Amino acid sequence: MFDLALAIGHHLLIFVLFGVLTAELVLVRAGVDRPTVARTARIDLWYGIAAGLIVVVGFIRAIFAAKGWAYYEHNAFFWAKMTTFLIIAFLSIPPTVKYIRWRRTGAVPDEAEIAGVRRFLWAEVALFALLPIFAAAMARGFGELAY
Question: pTM of the predicted model, to two decimals?
Answer without folding.
Answer: 0.90
